[in-house]
Design brief:
single chain, alpha+beta, four-stranded antiparallel beta sheet, 4 strands, elongated
Length: 84
């Protein structure tokens, strides 16, 4: 499972085979650090991205999941950023 760090967020993005077919789905989960270094806070539970799209290869699904993961973190950062 590939992991990407954006600021202090940890983003897990992955591809999983879909049931009943030979296609792939793209999934993302976002975590933030916690007070305990052995744990992390789950901000966004694992969810399927581009749910209406099925990918023919695992690499295609991972590429889309990676792009969506960065977009989700950017949105969250803008929403919770305290403007002066």
């Amino acid at each position: 499972m590939p992991i990407k760090h954006v600021d202090f967020y940890e983003v897990d993005y992955m591809a999983e085979p879909l049931r009943g077919c030979k296609l792939w789905g793209a999934y993302v989960a976002v975590y933030a650090p916690s007070v305990n270094p052995m744990h992390r806070t789950n901000i966004l539970k694992k969810r399927r991205v581009s749910a209406d799209h099925q990918f023919t290869t695992e690499a295609d699904a991972i590429a889309v999941a990676s792009e969506v993961a960065v977009t989700l973190v950017e949105r969250r950062r803008r929403r919770y950023y305290l403007h002066p």
